[in-house]
Amino acid sequence: MYIELDDFRQSYVVAKNEIRKFVRGKRFTIYAVLTTVVFALITFLPYLFGGDLGDTPGEVIANYVSIVDLLIILAATLFASVAIVSEFEERTALILFTRPIKKTSIFVGKVVGCIVLETVMIVLFYLGMAVASLAVAGSVSADLFVSLGVAFLFVVAVSGVAIFISSVMKKGSTTAILTFVLLLLILPIISSVISGSTSVEPWFMLDQASNAIQTSIPEYIDLVNGMLEHAAEMMGVSPEDLGVITAPDMAKTIITMLGWSIVSLSLAWVAFIRREF
Known about the structure:
Strand content: under 5%
Distance between the termini: 23 Å
Low-confidence stretches: none
Number of helices: 13
Oligomer: single chain
Structural class: mainly alpha
Order of helices and strands: HHHHHHHHHHHHH
Mean pLDDT: 88
């Protein structure tokens, strides 16, 4: 397989059309409204109940980051999980494949389109976090950008998993459900079983690596550990028994994210190239 300059242009056109299709659809509207509502609730509910978002930039950010991984999983479910399967389910691939365009260019364009759209949505959420931090604490913590970097890697990884599932399934609705259940339930269960029944630390699991989105914020660690210590005191046990969290190992986090991204996207590409009606 050789790559020509026109292949990049074709991928760009596919990505642009993919983004346009999603932005004009109901899925994008639902996701945008849901994200806005979540952000508003996190921002204003503490004040309605006599609390606040904190005094320092890190404390403000800590209120928001706990929901970021779920927002990314939801974005992958709504967009990436249907990127490939929709072409076959709606039979639009019959037209697309007759055009003078390589299947690899189609695949790359769809992957890039999904990742760009999801990344923009998450960046806007972080921008809102930065605005809230400036308004409440007067500055923005540098840890916010570390968390954003991890969030981007997670976007690519979960999108890769979703696109792989999309490349082998026949129904978009089934693909979306399977993607959401796999990322939100099945992977954490596997990590829990590995951690509980063996001496192996499941740092290589995608759900474990995603914890760095939150734990890259020191104030988040302090907040959660403070809650665990209070709960342990009430229960009469040691805080360690409830699972005290620590700062992430960024090297392992990056390796895990890149590994899941490369493997899932490679398998998805092979499945897509070989797929026929």
